[in-house]
UniProtKB/TrEMBL annotation:
<dbReference type="Pfam" id="PF02517">
    <property type="entry name" value="Rce1-like"/>
</dbReference>
<feature type="transmembrane region" description="Helical">
    <location>
        <begin position="508"/>
        <end position="528"/>
    </location>
</feature>
<feature type="transmembrane region" description="Helical">
    <location>
        <begin position="305"/>
        <end position="329"/>
    </location>
</feature>
<feature type="transmembrane region" description="Helical">
    <location>
        <begin position="245"/>
        <end position="265"/>
    </location>
</feature>
<dbReference type="InterPro" id="IPR003675">
    <property type="entry name" value="Rce1/LyrA-like_dom"/>
</dbReference>
<feature type="domain" description="CAAX prenyl protease 2/Lysostaphin resistance protein A-like">
    <location>
        <begin position="432"/>
        <end position="517"/>
    </location>
</feature>
<feature type="transmembrane region" description="Helical">
    <location>
        <begin position="383"/>
        <end position="404"/>
    </location>
</feature>
<keyword id="KW-1133">Transmembrane helix</keyword>
<keyword id="KW-0378">Hydrolase</keyword>
<feature type="transmembrane region" description="Helical">
    <location>
        <begin position="432"/>
        <end position="450"/>
    </location>
</feature>
<keyword id="KW-0645">Protease</keyword>
<feature type="transmembrane region" description="Helical">
    <location>
        <begin position="485"/>
        <end position="502"/>
    </location>
</feature>
<keyword id="KW-0482">Metalloprotease</keyword>
<keyword id="KW-0472">Membrane</keyword>
<feature type="transmembrane region" description="Helical">
    <location>
        <begin position="16"/>
        <end position="37"/>
    </location>
</feature>
<protein>
    <submittedName>
        <fullName>CPBP family intramembrane metalloprotease</fullName>
    </submittedName>
</protein>
<feature type="transmembrane region" description="Helical">
    <location>
        <begin position="341"/>
        <end position="363"/>
    </location>
</feature>
Length: 529
């Protein structure tokens, strides 16, 4: 009786602890999602990067004498004429500019709050974003013939920055002087333009500067440099467009094939289960239609997920920041992309690694586990088919829901610390470190937890499709970005289905690796220097 009472007290204490941790986890998730809502979607920044590439290629379309090559370039950038491209690009920049101005105004009202130091840093970051986007938007206004509008756009930067003039603010003054009547030339204008502008924007600004200075030789050199830059931009655009185009096309064909298979050869379809017919004997049911045996209850699932997420939050939000501050790492990280990449790889690995001992401790009473749990079957080549096929099947689905999500969220809901490293760093080492995080560490740890443990465990309480959908949603939620929830839920559902049918974690890990690697390659192509 005393032993039973002791066990009850122990369980009550554990339940109380898990309840408190659950409430704290929910509070942290809500707070983090709210913060992500105030940040522009990274997809918006990626769209602007692609816009910059298109602008650079546009000038080559007008100069191309070979009709076939010209048609190819035209199809690569747009179906409209170059003037339409300038108008569309300007519209994209103005939308992002308005979103950043609104965020800047909100932060300006909160700067006197309790967390004023953090708000001040965000405010400075937003101010820089507004200045940089205004600088580029003005050059696009010039191309559309709105010179007075461009001068107004550049003048607004001075009003926002005030006395604390940034390099972007100085460049907007230089641009305003170049397009004023009469022209005003500033000292060190060329150096300032080269430091703050790139691609098509730099060429337009330097062309105007050299014309004002009557430097014909520099104009000729600039035209030659522009042609080399155009060739590079074309290659990058081909890479960026080929990933969704090829992957999406193969994915659509794959889905059409699966539809035909379901209609005419239903029993051989991967979507076919024993519940689809009453007459099929057990002998004819394939092994991949047998679900997992789950010896534990909901309390064990709750324990594993809450303890892992609590450990993740504790390490990423308290332990590691404290260590980095004591070591003085944070002060050196802003310009060192290798250090930034290490501060992604190491914290991620350290924060998710507690999952392994937590699983071992929570499932110790049920060992040896029933057959099929956490299975890695390297010798069976089917995991390659499932992983690659699942990747192509996921591409069109995720692309479609991503477009819908972006429209619904209107450009808000996501901040990603990896983007500057991938798009601005010129060193291969930071990118290699990031690829190790995205394509090796993340697929292993996330698939082991969400597909290896959570999905099979939920099949004890939910139909298989319900378990797949729930585990996919929780997988997306764990990324703590509003903009990611719908696309990553769909991706998580596809990975869950692939694991359910293959019964091999290598298949969903391969799919995860391919997805992250494709996104990684597209980002490098978009922003590579």
């Amino acid at each position: 009786m005393d032993s039973q009472s002791l066990n009850d007290k122990s369980w009550n204490a554990k339940s109380l602890l898990l309840s408190v941790l659950s409430l704290l986890s929910v509070f942290f998730i809500i707070l983090t999602l709210q913060v992500s809502w105030n940040n522009p979607q990274e997809q918006t920044k990626l769209d602007l990067l692609q816009t910059d590439l298109i602008l650079q290629v546009t000038q080559s379309v007008n100069q191309e004498k070979d009709h076939f090559a010209g048609d190819f370039l035209q199809s690569l950038i747009s179906d409209g004429d170059p003037q339409d491209i300038y108008t569309q690009s300007l519209r994209s920049y103005q939308e992002v500019l308005q979103a950043n101005k609104s965020a800047f105004e909100r932060l300006s009202q909160d700067v006197s709050g309790a967390d004023s130091q953090s708000i001040s840093k965000q405010l400075q970051k937003k101010q820089n974003a507004v200045s940089e986007i205004s600088m580029r938007a003005g050059l696009l206004q010039i191309q559309t013939g709105d010179i007075q509008g461009a001068i107004t756009t550049w003048s607004n930067v001075k009003e926002i920055e005030g006395e604390s003039m940034t390099s972007y603010g100085l460049t907007t003054q230089i641009l305003q002087g170049l397009w004023s009547e009469p022209t005003i030339l500033f000292p060190n204008a060329e150096t300032q333009i080269r430091n703050t502008l790139d691609g098509w924007y730099r060429q337009v600004a330097l062309t105007k500067l050299y014309q004002a200075q009557q430097r014909s030789e520099e104009l000729s050199n600039l035209a030659q440099q522009a042609q080399i830059a155009v060739e590079t931009a074309i290659k990058r655009l081909i890479i960026v467009n080929s990933i969704p185009l090829i992957g999406g096309s193969i994915g659509v064909l794959l889905w059409l094939g699966l539809l035909v298979q379901w209609i005419f050869f239903r029993k051989s379809s991967p979507f076919y289960t024993k519940s689809d017919t009453k007459s099929e004997s057990a002998a004819n049911q394939t092994s991949n239609q047998i679900n997992w045996q789950v010896p534990w209850g909901m309390e064990t699932i709750w324990e594993v997920m809450v303890l892992w997420f609590s450990a993740f939050c504790l390490i990423t939000q308290l332990v590691l920041p404290l260590i980095f501050e004591l070591l003085g790492i944070e002060s050196r990280v802003s310009e060192d992309y290798t250090l930034q990449a290490l501060l992604v790889l190491i914290p991620y690995t350290v924060s998710v690694m507690p999952m392994l001992p937590i699983l071992r401790f929570s499932l110790a009473a049920y060992r040896p586990l029933p057959e099929g749990w956490f299975r890695f079957k390297l010798t069976s080549p089917q995991w390659l088919v499932w992983g690659i096929g699942g990747y192509f099947a996921a591409v069109p689905l995720v692309l479609i829901v991503s477009v819908i999500s972006q429209k619904f969220l209107q450009g808000q809901g996501g901040g990603n610390p990896l983007l500057p490293i991938l798009t601005e760093s010129q060193n291969i080492l930071p990118k290699l470190l990031l690829w190790s995080t995205l394509a090796i560490a993340a697929p292993f740890f996330e698939e082991y937890l969400f597909r290896g443990f959570l999905l099979p465990s939920l099949t004890k309480f939910l139909p298989v499709w319900g378990a797949i959908a729930t585990s996919g949603f929780l997988f997306a939620l764990a990324h703590l970005n509003i903009a990611d929830i719908i696309p990553l839920s769909v991706l998580g559902i596809v990975m869950g289905f692939v694991y359910w049918r293959s019964k091999n974690l290598l298949s969903s890990m391969l799919l995860h690796c391919l997805w992250n690697s494709g996104s990684f390659l597209a980002l490098i192509a978009l922003g590579g220097k």
